[in-house]
């Protein structure tokens, strides 16, 4: 039984774990780190995690959207911040340029939007250029790269912006032997050569995400972007060395009801699980309305009092049912859905649900409370 207060359901984020993970990654890569805090820091809390990352030595923070990046500035963060997702016409692009946030362009339309934001703000932009080396998502197409670079250099000469970075993103870094990794590295190096030929001298060149930062040193360049690894989860299960990373998130609840059912009792909607013997069931008061994957039904496990207990039947909007050993578990007992071993982990849930740990921690929320522990002054 945990000594933590009884709550219906809460997410507990250990900021000491975040700091320890960032330091471990820095020691392993020996390269400056960008800690990626997009999507509310992968569900861990944007501002608390950002402060923890900076305290642990993160040189940069990465935020997908303008709103995320500006929230960092509004909270007092003054260090380098990169953002990369905006559409032309977004008014907050002007605010981001004025706040000294590095913004990313990967097309002529993107450069136009940044130029207009510079005009409106009266502040030269900090501009990074992204090349598509094979992910086929955002990023400039290789055949358009020279033109983008040339125009970016013209803008630099005109004082519209300073090109602070050139970067790309890997598609298969969690599979170190995948041929796409070498192909993308070569394409990135070719893009850097074109940038140099046109007179660009960016502050940072970056390609590696969490998996590549850990297992592919040739991709590190001037900066590595660590997302999931900073939160203590393995970006490439089966391929990464043990760096002592600690999962920072625990999702916990309290048993709301315990009862015996006879053999033959169907459990939850559709009776997708039927008891083959008299069974003790526990009701956990969270469901897919709180971000618990519906796919977890009949596949995932939770921890009740130190024992792994399987989810039985379909996960409902507000609740799920688990089987507990006879004589074990009482109303109010703590249930850990996932956390650090020996509890079930986010990776365990990912494998049970046919997804990745990123989705497990990022989608959990809803009516869960959230609490941060491990602050520097504790």
TrEMBL record:
Substrate binds at residues 137, 317. One of its GO terms (cellular component) is cytosol. Its EC number is 5.1.1.1. Pathway: Amino-acid biosynthesis; D-alanine biosynthesis; D-alanine from L-alanine: step 1/1. SMART domains: Ala_racemase_C. GO terms for biological process: D-alanine biosynthetic process; peptidoglycan biosynthetic process. Keywords: Isomerase, Pyridoxal phosphate. Its cofactor is pyridoxal 5'-phosphate. InterPro entries: Ala_racemase, Ala_racemase/Decarboxylase_C, Ala_racemase_C, Ala_racemase_N, Ala_racemase_pyridoxalP-BS, PLP-binding_barrel. It catalyses: L-alanine = D-alanine. Residues 248-373 form the Alanine racemase C-terminal domain. The active site is at 38 (proton acceptor), 269 (proton acceptor). The keyword Isomerase applies. GO terms for molecular function: alanine racemase activity; pyridoxal phosphate binding. Transmembrane segments: none annotated. The modification N6-(pyridoxal phosphate)lysine is found at residue 38. Catalyzes the interconversion of L-alanine and D-alanine. May also act on other amino acids. Belongs to the alanine racemase family. This is Alanine racemase. It comes from Nocardioides marinus. The lineage of its organism: Bacteria, Bacillati, Actinomycetota, Actinomycetes, Propionibacteriales.
């Amino acid at each position: 039984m945990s000594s933590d207060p009884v709550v219906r359901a809460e997410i507990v984020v250990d900021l000491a774990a975040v700091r320890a993970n960032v330091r471990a990654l820095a020691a392993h890569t020996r390269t400056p780190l960008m800690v990626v805090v997009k999507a509310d820091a992968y569900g861990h809390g944007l501002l608390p995690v950002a402060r923890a990352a900076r305290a642990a030595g993160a040189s940069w923070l990465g935020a997908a959207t303008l709103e995320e990046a500006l929230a960092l500035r509004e909270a007092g963060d003054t260090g380098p911040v990169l953002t990369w997702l905006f559409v032309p016409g977004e008014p907050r692009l002007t605010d981001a340029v004025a706040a000294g946030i590095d913004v990313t362009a990967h097309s002529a339309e993107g450069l136009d939007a940044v130029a207009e934001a510079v005009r409106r703000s009266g502040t030269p932009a900090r501009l990074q250029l992204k090349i598509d080396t094979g992910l086929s998502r955002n990023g400039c197409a290789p055949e358009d790269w020279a033109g983008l670079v040339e125009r970016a250099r013209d803008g630099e000469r005109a004082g519209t912006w300073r090109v602070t970075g050139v970067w790309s993103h890997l598609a298969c870094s969690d599979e170190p032997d995948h041929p796409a990794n070498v192909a993308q590295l070569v394409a990135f190096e070719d893009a850097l050569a074109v940038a140099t030929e046109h007179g660009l001298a960016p502050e940072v060149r970056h390609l590696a995400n969490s998996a590549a930062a850990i297992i592919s040193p040739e991709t590190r360049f001037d900066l590595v972007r660590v997302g999931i690894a900073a939160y203590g989860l393995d970006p490439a299960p089966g391929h990464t060395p043990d760096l002592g990373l600690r999962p920072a998130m625990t999702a916990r609840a309290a048993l709301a009801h315990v009862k015996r059912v006879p053999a033959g009792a169907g459990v939850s909607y559709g009776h997708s699980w039927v008891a083959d013997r008299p069974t003790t069931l526990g009701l956990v008061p969270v469901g897919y309305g709180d971000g618990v994957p519906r796919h977890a039904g009949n596949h995932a496990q939770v921890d009740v009092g130190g024992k792994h207990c399987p989810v039985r039947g379909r996960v409902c909007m507000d609740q799920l049912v688990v089987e507990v050993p006879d004589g074990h578990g009482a109303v109010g007992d703590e249930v850990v859905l996932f956390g650090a071993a020996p509890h079930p982990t986010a990776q365990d849930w990912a494998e049970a649900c046919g997804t990745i740990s990123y989705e497990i921690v990022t989608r959990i929320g809803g009516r869960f409370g959230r609490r941060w522990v491990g602050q520097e002054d504790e």
